[in-house]
Specification:
With 327 residues, the chain is of the alpha/beta class. The chain has 11 helices and 9 strands.
């Protein structure tokens, strides 16, 4: 098998059909590919939906179904890597709608760039309603990457631009890069069912691959739409969403350093974080109750120091210390 499309889903019975219908019309020639649905501890009729599609599946690409009983997107992705028959594994969330040439572009880009450990898609939004004013300031956190050009993230780092990695939605990961780089147990489990307690599991995975020397790319020809429903703009959801990102910040931030060096840098990072909190509050305190975007940014800033406590706890639980010992 040349290419695997992996769809990790939790309670995706209503969302999966929109993805599967678009995979049925992919324009692929000259290579073999498969679709792998990873059911991450769903409690709805996800299995029945997939079985119904399997019975009438109209294309030659096999549609397979596997279960991962341990909740958490990280565990679902690990299951996908173990089950995938191809070296190139392209991940679609159950709310990602690929263009008809997505699989073809994803496969050929991997052939053309053998040093690419992972490469992301051009991700455009599909809103059920118009987002609130100022949403563009936080859109990156919703895995939106609308750039149509192709570039290497490594080169942008060398130019001292803002460090970023491809988001997990629409990303293709070379299995060899994952096997060589990502430890058996990641520190962040990611979205677990409906819980957003920790996020940024895709950043953690990309960081491991990046720091092992693999190239990370953005492929503008790989186009998908990310469906963003109305409830994503509700204050309750945004609060949980950005708290989860903030709580994960120190874990992903410290991946660039051995643990001892990271600990020495913590006071400096914490000082910067507190400065950002104070200055943001002084500039925006009058709008924090009425502006949902500013309230989201505020929650993110407040949650970053909380993430430091999460990181310290992991150190004392000996979950991140082996990285230091290896170095």
């Amino acid at each position: 098998m040349d290419f695997t499309v992996a769809i990790c889903t939790f309670n995706g019975a209503e969302r999966l059909p929109n993805v599967l219908k678009r995979l049925q019309v992919q324009q692929t020639t000259g290579f073999t590919w498969e679709i792998l649905v990873v059911d991450n501890a769903s409690t709805d009729t996800t299995a029945i939906v997939v079985e119904r599609y399997q019975k009438t599946w109209p294309i030659s690409a096999p549609l397979r179904y596997v279960q991962e009983s341990q909740p958490g997107l990280t565990h679902a992705r690990r299951k996908a890597f173990h089950e995938a028959e191809a070296e190139l594994v392209g991940f679609l969330d159950d709310d990602n709608w690929p263009d008809p040439n997505w699989v073809s572009h994803a496969y050929h880009f991997g052939l053309k760039h053998p040093s690419a450990g992972a490469y992301g898609s051009c991700i455009r939004p599909y809103y059920d309603q118009e987002p609130p004013p100022g949403f563009e300031r936080i859109s990156l956190y919703f895995a939106l990457r609308p750039q149509t050009e192709t570039f290497c993230y490594n080169d942008r780092y060398q130019k001292n631009l803002r460090k970023m990695f491809p988001p997990g939605a629409g990303v293709v990961v070379r299995k060899q890069a994952w096997q060589q780089s990502v430890p058996q147990k990641q520190q962040l489990s990611g979205v677990t069912g409906t819980s957003l307690a920790t996020k940024s599991e895709d950043v953690e995975m990309m960081s491991y691959i990046f720091y092992q020397g693999w190239k990370l790319w953005h492929c503008g020809e790989m186009k998908i739409q990310h469906h963003i429903p109305n409830d994503r703009f509700q204050p309750a959801y945004l609060t949980k969403f950005f708290r989860g990102i903030g709580r994960s910040r120190y874990i992903t931030r410290m991946q660039a350093y051995p643990v001892l060096l990271g600990c020495l840098l913590i006071p400096g990072y914490l000082t910067i974080d507190i400065f950002k909190i104070v200055t943001y509050f002084l500039r925006n305190f009058q709008d924090l109750r009425t502006d949902v975007i500013k309230a989201s940014e505020w929650k993110l800033l407040l949650s970053v120091p909380e993430g430091l406590l999460v990181y310290i706890r992991l150190i004392f639980e000996n979950k991140v210390l082996p990285k230091f010992l290896k170095k």
